[in-house]
Design goal:
about 280 residues, 9 helices, about 25% helix
Length: about 280
C-alpha cells in the first residue's frame, strides 16, 4: 500500500471569508495574504494505491470551466491534477475509486471533463465515485447561500455516467479506508480515515482547512452551520488526540500534515510534516 499526495494546483480566496469572525489583525499572524486580502490555498488530493485498487480523494477544480472562472480564483494550473497523477506514474483509467468529500467546485471539479465532442464525461471512466447520500441530495437541490459552489456540470454527469455510489453515515470504502460524515461546512461532508503502518490518517477536507484553523472558533464564513462545525471539530479533536492521529491538510499551502495536542489554551498543533517525512 502506498500513499501519494497529489497536487491539483493552488488558488486564492479572501482571507476574511476563510477565517470568519476572526479579525485580520489576528489571523494574518498565522496565514499570509496579499495586498488585496487574498490568501493562497492548496488543492491537495491523496491517492491510496492498494495494488488492485487505486483510490483518489477529491479532484480539485478541473479544467472545463471558462477561463474567467479560473481567473477569478487565480488557479495556478487547471490541468495540474492529471499532470500530477501522470508524474507519479498513474493514468486516469487506472483509478478504481474516487472519494468526493463534498461537491463544492474546488473538490469535485476534476471529476468531470469535456470530451472532444463537447460532452461532459467522467475523468476516471473505470472508477466508482463515492459521495454521501445527504451531500448528494443537498448539492442537487442547492440553497441560495451555497448555490455558487455547486456547479451542476461537475455533479450530475457522475450519475448520468452510471458511476455514482451513495453512502450513509459511516461506510468502509476498502479494508484500509472508511468514511465518516461531518456536517457544518456543508451537509454530508465525508472525512476519510486511512489505516497505514499502524497509524490513522484523516483527510480533513474542509472540516479543518489549515493549521491556522485549529482553534475551535476559527471557522470559515463558507460554513452553512458554523456551530455544528464547532461541535464536530470537538468530537474529532478528542479522537485525534487520543489516537495520535495524522491530520492530512487539503488546503494548507504551508503544511501538508500535522498532529494535534491539548494545551492550556485549547487544542493546538503538535507538529507539522509531510507524509514522506513521517513515514521515512
Amino acid at each position: 500500500m502506498k500513499l501519494i499526495p497529489i497536487d491539483a494546483g493552488n488558488f486564492w480566496l479572501d482571507g476574511g471569508a476563510m477565517f470568519g469572525v476572526v479579525p485580520k489583525v489576528v489571523w494574518s499572524k498565522h496565514y499570509p495574504s496579499d495586498e488585496n486580502n487574498l490568501c493562497n490555498w492548496a488543492l491537495r488530493s491523496l491517492l491510496i494505491d492498494e495494488g488492485d485498487r487505486k483510490i483518489l480523494i477529491d479532484t480539485g477544480m478541473g479544467n472545463k470551466q471558462e477561463d474567467a472562472f479560473y481567473d477569478r480564483y487565480k488557479l495556478s494550473n487547471k490541468n495540474q491534477l492529471l499532470a500530477s497523477l501522470k508524474q507519479n506514474g498513474y493514468e486516469p483509467t487506472e483509478i478504481t475509486d474516487v472519494i468526493l468529500t463534498h461537491l463544492h467546485f474546488d473538490h469535485v471539479g476534476g471529476a468531470i471533463t469535456q470530451s472532444e465532442k463537447g460532452d461532459l464525461v467522467t475523468s476516471f471512466p473505470n472508477a466508482k465515485y463515492w459521495v454521501s447520500k445527504s451531500q448528494w441530495e443537498w448539492a442537487t437541490h442547492p440553497n441560495p447561500r451555497e448555490k455558487a459552489s455547486f456547479l451542476m456540470d461537475n455533479i450530475l454527469p457522475i450519475q448520468e455516467c452510471g458511476q455514482l455510489k451513495l453512502i450513509g453515515e459511516e461506510f468502509p470504502i476498502s479494508e484500509n479506508i472508511y468514511a465518516r460524515i461531518f456536517n457544518g461546512h456543508t451537509i454530508g461532508q465525508i472525512i476519510p480515515y486511512i489505516k497505514y503502518k499502524g497509524k490513522t490518517i484523516a483527510f480533513m477536507a474542509d472540516l479543518l482547512p489549515s493549521v491556522a484553523h485549529i482553534p475551535l472558533a476559527w471557522i470559515m464564513s463558507y460554513d452553512v452551520q458554523p456551530l455544528q462545525t464547532l461541535e464536530d471539530r470537538k468530537r474529532f479533536y478528542k479522537e485525534a488526540i487520543q489516537d495520535d492521529m495524522i491530520i492530512f491538510l487539503q488546503h494548507d499551502l504551508l503544511h501538508e500534515a500535522c498532529r494535534l495536542q491539548e494545551t492550556p489554551k485549547g487544542v493546538r498543533v503538535k507538529d507539522t510534516f509531510t507524509l514522506q517525512e513521517f513515514f521515512k
